[in-house]
UniProtKB/TrEMBL annotation:
InterPro entries: Peptidase_M20, Peptidase_M20_dimer, Peptidase_M20C. This is Cytosol non-specific dipeptidase. It comes from Blautia hydrogenotrophica (strain DSM 10507 / JCM 14656 / S5a33). The keyword Metal-binding applies. Residues 208-290 form the Peptidase M20 dimerisation domain.
Length: 375
């Protein structure tokens, strides 16, 4: 039984549900690209599929509209793949499990992929019908937008003739946006050294955050778990001596991380101090982020008494200095347009490895005036 069969427009949600059955995370788009080819063949529409998997589907103009300039409809077929802690969903092979909750379409334990699956669904619904008069259409669906606009960068634009382009990758229905933004991905690699130490090993986890897309939600004051972990570790120095063994938070540079965990080595007599500090910081953060991340928690769990590799004190200070000082969040608001984030950064992923502390950041800059009107 279809989950979305009663949603309107019916054919749009039909195709959205079909798309959701096909794994289509960034760098895993061959199957959905081939699905779009099959659609074009089934509806006897001319198409181009390039070596990267980008798709262009053409539809002739309606009678009487042949002399009008062609219109390009553009979206992307890949999605950001994020899941809740404890989920066993495999984005490489599992379909999304859709549900309707409080009047909204969402997914069980994972991101939904409406960015930009809804564009693909709208485009296919429009291509299959002759109910609407239109000029010639050129539907462009690119790959790997979420990891740097890779498909768009490699698209051979000579296959397009349209004078107008409507990008179907926006946020709010009924709003047209005119403007552009640029993004840059950066990787920080800080050399670290380890030494062996003995003590009680605890896992500290910061979780319960809302997260979100680093472009669309960066201006909503949502907490970043990696940044909060830096705050936790820096403040903990004033409470007790500890040694950092592991740290990992977030998965993608363009997603505000919802969780971050670390492994700390402490002495047995400091256990209650650690737990008390975690409780106090939880209360502090819930008050600070009551409007965006009221469910924040800092949890502490004993692992074992052990000897383990921990960061050398100099390396530990480097890691803490980075987490406390790396630019994150809104850097500048537009001076012309109220409420518009002009420049922002996001510490999307942070991880201690054998020889380096590796961090991935995403920076966005809105670089052209935006005109917004309701239609």
């Amino acid at each position: 039984m279809s989950v979305l069969e009663n949603c309107e427009p019916k054919r749009v949600f039909y195709y959205f549900e079909e798309i959701s059955k096909i794994p289509h995370g960034s760098k895993n788009t061959k199957e959905i690209s081939d699905y779009l080819v099959s659609f074009a063949k089934e509806h006897q529409l001319r198409y181009v599929q390039d070596e990267y998997g980008n798709i262009v589907i053409y539809k002739a103009a309606s009678a009487g509209y042949e002399k009008l300039p062609a219109v390009i409809l553009q979206g992307h077929m890949d999605m950001v793949c994020e899941k809740e802690a404890g989920s066993n969903h495999d984005f490489e092979k599992d379909p999304l499990r859709l549900k309707i909750e409080d009047g909204f379409v969402t997914a069980e334990g994972t991101t939904l992929g409406a960015d930009d699956g809804i564009a693909v669904a709208y485009a296919l619904a429009l291509l299959e019908t002759d109910s609407y008069a239109h000029p010639a259409l050129e539907v462009v669906i690119t790959v790997d937008e979420e990891v740097g606009l890779l498909g768009a960068q490699n698209l051979d634009a000579s296959c397009l003739s349209g004078k107008y382009l409507i990008n179907l990758d926006s946020d709010e229905e009924g709003i047209l946006l005119t403007g552009c933004a640029g993004g840059v991905s950066a990787i920080s690699s800080i050399p670290v050294k380890y030494r062996n130490a003995s003590g009680c090993l605890y896992e500290v986890k910061i979780h319960g955050l809302q997260g979100g897309h680093s472009g669309m939600e960066i201006g909503k004051n949502r907490a970043n778990a990696n940044i909060l972990m830096g705050r936790f570790l820096y403040g903990l120095k004033e409470q007790l001596p500890y040694e950092l063994a592991e740290l990992e938070g977030g998965q993608k540079d363009n997603v505000i991380p919802r969780e971050c965990s670390c492994a700390l080595l402490i002495q047995p007599e400091d256990t209650e101090i650690l737990k008390d500090y975690a409780c106090r910081l939880t209360a502090e953060l819930r008050k600070e982020y009551s409007g965006s991340d009221a469910g924040i928690s800092v949890s502490v769990e004993f692992q074992e008494e052990t000897q383990i590799g921990v960061l050398h004190p100099v390396s530990q200070e480097k890691v803490l200095f980075y987490l406390m000082n790396v630019p994150n969040g809104v850097q500048k608001m537009s001076g012309n347009i109220p409420g518009l984030v002009e420049t922002s950064t996001n510490l999307g992923a942070a991880r201690l490895e054998e020889e380096v502390f590796l961090c991935q950041l995403w920076g966005t800059e809105f670089c052209q005036q935006c005109k917004v009107r309701r239609v």
